[in-house]
Design goal:
The chain has about 90 residues and is mostly beta strands. It has one domain: Immunoglobulin-like (Sandwich). It has no helices and 10 strands. The strands form 2 sheets. Strands 1, 2, 5, 8, 9 and 10 form a 6-stranded mixed beta sheet that branches.
Length: about 90
Amino acid sequence: MISVSTHVLDTGAGRPAAGVRVELVGVAEATTDGDGRARLAEGLEPGEYTVVFHPPSPFFRRVELTVALEEGHYHVPLLVSPYGCASYRGS
């Protein structure tokens, strides 16, 4: 079974980013909770999926990542500020 979750951190403000719309294209859409977290999907098939973030940034309006998923749980965080953004494979 494959599952996907995310966590959006506003590094410019130094806190989680609540209320951020996140899409797993063609599969699910969620909004981050008060801790900046969202569960996107469970029971996915192996393959490539695109995660789209709509972060609280005056510059980055849309951040899109395409990820290759096999078995297990995948946590795809986004760190965003007015001047930069980064992601990594979380646990």
